[in-house]
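User: Here's a chain of 530 residues. Predict its fold as tokens.
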Amino acid sequence: MKQGAKLTIGKYWHIITIISILCILNYSAIAQEKVRPRIVVTADPELDDNNSLLRFLLYSTDVQVEGLIYTSSQFHWKGDGKGTKRLVPGREYTRFGLDICPCESWRWAPDERFIHDAVEAYEKVYPNLKIHNPDYPTPSDLKSKIRYGNVEFDGDFSTDTPGSDLIKSLVLDDKPGPLYITAWGGGSTIARALKSIEEEYEGKPEWASLKTKISKKIILLPSGDQDDTFANYIRPNWPEMANWQYKDGPKYGFAAQIGASPVDSVYYTADWLGKNILTQGPMGALYRVWGDGKQMVKGDIMDFFGPAGQYSLDELKKMGYIVWMPLQATGSWISEGDTPTFMGMLANGLRAYESAEYGGWGGYAQGEVMRFSVGDASNTDTTLQALTSAVLGSPQKSEEKTFPDFFPAAENDLATRFKWSVTPNFKDANHEPKVSIDGPLNLKVHVGVKVSLSGNVKDPDGDKVSVKWWQFRVGSYPNEVDLVDPNSTKAAFIVPADAKPGQTVHFVLEATDHGSPALTRYQRVIVTVE
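Assistant: Prediction complete.
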């Protein structure tokens, strides 16, 4: 609406009603129904992949699990079993004064099966889980999705594997919607699937349109470029393929507890983890913490977290370990470094799976592939800079967005799901509130219009629920919008006079129950200015 034009309030609301009807027709499938994104997990046997996988399985209610695939990386590779030795310059086995490789394998257990172990633990608790949420997939369904991908060597994608074949079949199927593919380890298995398709179809009449279709279908969710296949093959050959790199969200990685806020720091402690995760049945027993007496690979000199008890830096060095981050208390947080890749896929109402920029419990994403550049570190005194920053991902600051602290909500939710796994009665655990919006989740409005935001909140346990509306500052409109009655299910705002056509404003209805632990759900409404 042009500035200075006059409309009655009745006409305003007539316009909004028409817009709402059109939006309902266009967005009803997304707006009020649960969307389950299709997702493939590729992972190497790092302890943080193990921890992230346990969380992922507890949220398998929210996604369609299409693959659980072992892959290699610069940090873990199996070898071919034929005595072939490999060395890639600049890898961790050439730093810290080490001169170990060429090697037949690197940090890979002969009987590696951490994905199988996690799914088998899930199988033991599945009868409890499905009582609390019937959308949990059957253990047999998850088992059918496990494959070994390109695990032999660092960055080698020269041959087809069961894992790459599965990804290839998913890429080529005709199911609607995006296919999200994580790379918790290296990208070699993903690269092989794409290369196999290229080899089969390149030169054929349909290749150009097929490549475009694939590039639009796949959304890559990499934890960096851990074997250079993104830089060397995927990015140059599939430049239009989306790569969501998450930042600014909760800190799930190594050293996350360092510098954590007082509110967040409790969730990294041995007390909280012991109470809410480690003691919670078969899945909790697999979760890795400092000094737990476990190692992904027995005798792994990089896995200095494992020796039981509390050791000093000098003691660990004498035991032969490479200590590459500051020591923490026994039983405390180590890492879930790959968790941000899928936290945006969750059905918590934030709709983060719809766009890289929307943001959710994993942060918000940018469409750039991270280029690993690990500097030389001649001794363990420089490892926090050389590895925690370059390899594992240091905390990133954004000057453009002020991101909410979702970590307490995410961790309370995780604690509840671990509790579900050991609780056979619905009434003996907490369950998240249900949040819905009256009308569409996407609105188109004119400058100067007063818009009502109305939602509904119900709690399945009958708990009291606190609610509030707030502006999620990820929209393209740069300024703050005043909300009327934000601490209720019904709020309102006036579209700012300085808003320009095409700009968006995101509002979130947040509901937190008073159960133990408190659980939070949301619904996001996106307003576009016409």
